[in-house]
Amino acid sequence: MGARGHGFLYERCVQPCLVELLGSTLFVFIGCLSVIEHRPDTGPLQPALAHGLTLGLIIATLGNISGGHFNPAVSLAATLIGGLDLMMLLPYWASQLCGGLIGAALAKAVSPEERFWNASGAAFVTVQEPGQLTGAVVTEVMLTALLALAVCMGAINESTQGPLAPFSIGYSVTVGILAGSAVSGACMNPARAFGPAVVANRWDFHWVYWLGPLLGSLLVGALTRFFIGDKKTRLILKGQ
Predict the structure, then answer these.
(1) What Cα–Cα distance (Å) separates residue 103 from each residue in 108, 157, 216?
(2) Is 110 helix (H, G, I), strand (E, B) or coil?
(3) Is the CB of residue 150 less than 8 Å from the CB of residue 168?
(4) Contact 204/125 with Cβ under 8 angstroms?
(5) How many whole angstroms separate alpha carbon 71 and alpha carbon 58?
(6) CA–CA separation, 128 vs 188, rounded Å?
(7) Model pTM?
(8) Which helix (H) or strand (E) holds 119?
(9) What radius of gyration, in Å, describes the C-alpha atoms of the chain?
(10) How high is the pLDDT of residue 150?
(11) What does pLDDT average to in each consecutive run of 10 residues of the chain (240 residues)?
(12) What pLDDT, in 10s, does the model give residues 114-144?
């Protein structure tokens, strides 16, 4: 394989995954810090703004390289509507989960130990008993559906995409946290749940934060296919 072939492989496969790793690290690091350093008198506003603004900023700066997913559920929805090559789905997921782990570990490293453990390491611990499961799963499905819809229709589908998509996507995360944090924790992102769960070793009902977001992305993928059919979608890897 010549230099041109190596360059093609790097731009189409390696570079997007590295960007997903970097973006996921930054997102989870800042998100975890906002929870660990959260002041109770601000309610969910502090983590909602931190997560949403960070995501919008990272998508605006890095999105043209990888598509700016930083979320396994978003990558699944993008794949379902033709915005991401199926062969790249697992590499994207691996990059995002590794980024979530690194971001959570960095948040622990820079946080006072007492605050870290008082916040359960920014892991999702809202669901404490089986009676909360139905509400938590439904909430995660609906909030992730809103996020995935903002991505699919605002950034991937060529007939509806617009220049404000990064900030609309970030805004959907802010709205989701403000609305659903008391019910499920408003995760919407398995990578955001995975990293802190590993670092803090908090696994109670962790599956909720995989099942809900992935179902939400499946729902949006199906609905988007139904509404736009075979209309052109933008493959989001660089050069496509």
Answers:
(1) 9, 30, 24
(2) helix
(3) yes
(4) yes
(5) 12
(6) 18
(7) 0.91
(8) none
(9) 17
(10) 95
(11) 62 91 98 92 91 96 94 96 93 98 98 94 94 97 97 87 90 97 96 97 96 97 78 49
(12) 999 999 999 999 999 999 999 999 999 999 9
DSSP 83: S
User: Whose structure tokens read 């499946």?
Assistant: 218
Chain mean position to CA 84? 15
Degrees to nearest 5, angle at CA 139 with 134 and 141: 100
Could you tell me where the DSSP H helices lie in the chain? 3-9, 15-36, 45-66, 72-80, 89-110, 113-118, 133-151, 165-180, 190-200, 208-228
Tell which residue, 129, 237, 147, 152, has the closest CA to residue 190.
Answer: 147
Relative orientation angle of helices 72-80 and 89-110, to the nearest 10 degrees: 160
What DSSP assignment string belongs to 23-82?
A: HHHHHHHHHHHHHHT--GGGTTHHHHHHHHHHHHHHHHHHHHHH-S--SHHHHHHHHHTT
